[in-house]
DNA sequence: ATGCCACGTTAGACGTGA
């Protein structure tokens, strides 16, 4: 089964690309981020007509996450993370999908550094890690899929120098990601491509796509039981080159 | 050092992204 993480950068603007993707690739599960849509304007019927059940956690203008499942309805387990009752951002959604636990994650960007947005990112990351530890304790097949807004290693970015001061590759961001992995999660794409050099995002600006100036920030983490079923992982890079594309490409893992 | 480009909101720029 193919499980996808796709930051669509606005589901209204990206709906033609998303429907194409569903029709052409027939992924089994799709975790979406950056819906930029309130709950009321989520295109439920279009997605249902494409053969997918959906669960979404929207927000007006920015953030927003969803989980799509081909031929079934995801069963909600949790929306939002615990640990901060004042957090109003829609960045986390967790569901049971045909026996698999799946989370769609949109971790805060955190720029500029330093500042309150970076503090929020690190705090949110700690809350995610607490949730992840709870999920591991269930000893089930779990996939944590999303835009983590973290470049894990120097070989996950086109230019270390160009991004050195960015929140995506600050030591604190990387350490939080490493602490998450150290709980026992498997980074699918890293497992498939241990030498790095694989990008999931290319900026709209400065001809980044044409220069292949990208980096890897969309990750699918597997619990030990899910990792036992690991088959393959990759990036459907061609979708980044289409008309009216998102700045992220669909990133996927295949479980046997 | 800053803007580049794109989206959403909402009718002129501005907030946000990364």
From TrEMBL:
Transmembrane feature ranges: none
A Pfam family annotated for this UniProt entry: Exo_endo_phos
SUPFAM superfamilies according to UniProt: DNase I-like
Metal-binding in keyword set: yes
Domain of life: Bacteria
Residues annotated as site: Transition state stabilizer: 149
InterPro entries named among the record's database cross-references: AP_endonuc_1, AP_endonuclease_F1_BS, Endo/exonu/phosph_ase_sf, Endo/exonuclease/phosphatase, ExoIII-like
EC number: 3.1.11.2
Free-text comment on the cofactor: Probably binds two magnesium or manganese ions per subunit.
Site (Important for catalytic activity): 218
Name of the protein: Exodeoxyribonuclease III
Site features described as Interaction with DNA substrate, chain residue numbers: 248
Binding site for Mg(2+): 7, 34, 147, 149, 247-248
Domain Endonuclease/exonuclease/phosphatase: 4-248
PROSITE patterns per record: AP_NUCLEASE_F1_1, AP_NUCLEASE_F1_4
Necessary cofactors: Mg(2+); Mn(2+)
Active-site residues, as the UniProt record annotates them: 106, 147, 248
UniProt keywords, alphabetically: Hydrolase, Magnesium, Manganese, Metal-binding
Similarity comment: Belongs to the DNA repair enzymes AP/ExoA family.
UniProt GO molecular function: DNA binding; double-stranded DNA 3'-5' DNA exonuclease activity; endonuclease activity; metal ion binding
Name of the encoding gene: xth
Signal peptide: none
BP term (GO), one: DNA repair
């Amino acid at each position: 089964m193919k499980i996808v993480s796709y930051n669509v950068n606005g589901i209204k603007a990206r709906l033609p690309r998303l429907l194409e993707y569903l029709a052409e690739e027939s992924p089994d599960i799709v975790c979406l981020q950056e819906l930029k849509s309130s709950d009321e304007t989520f295109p439920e019927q279009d997605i249902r007509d494409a053969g997918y059940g959906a669960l979404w956690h929207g927000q007006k203008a920015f953030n927003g996450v969803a989980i799509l499942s081909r031929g079934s309805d995801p069963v909600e387990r949790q929306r939002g993370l615990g640990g901060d009752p004042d957090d109003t951002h829609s960045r986390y959604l967790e569901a049971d999908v045909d026996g698999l636990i799946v989370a769609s994650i949109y971790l805060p960007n955190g720029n500029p550094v330093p500042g309150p947005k970076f503090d929020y990112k690190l705090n949110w990351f700690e809350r995610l890690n607490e949730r992840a530890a709870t999920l591991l304790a269930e000893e089930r097949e779990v996939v944590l899929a999303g835009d983590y807004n973290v470049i894990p290693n120097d070989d996950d970015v086109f230019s270390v120098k160009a991004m050195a001061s960015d929140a995506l590759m600050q030591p604190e961001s990387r350490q939080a990601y490493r602490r998450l992995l150290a709980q026992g999660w498997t980074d699918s794409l890293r497992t498939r491509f241990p030498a790095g050099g694989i990008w999931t995002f290319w900026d709209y600006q400065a001809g980044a796509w044409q220069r292949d100036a990208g980096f890897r920030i969309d990750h699918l983490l597997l619990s030990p039981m899910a990792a036992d079923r690991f088959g393959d992982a990759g990036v459907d890079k061609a979708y980044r080159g289409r008309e009216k594309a998102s700045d992220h490409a669909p990133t996927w893992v295949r479980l046997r």
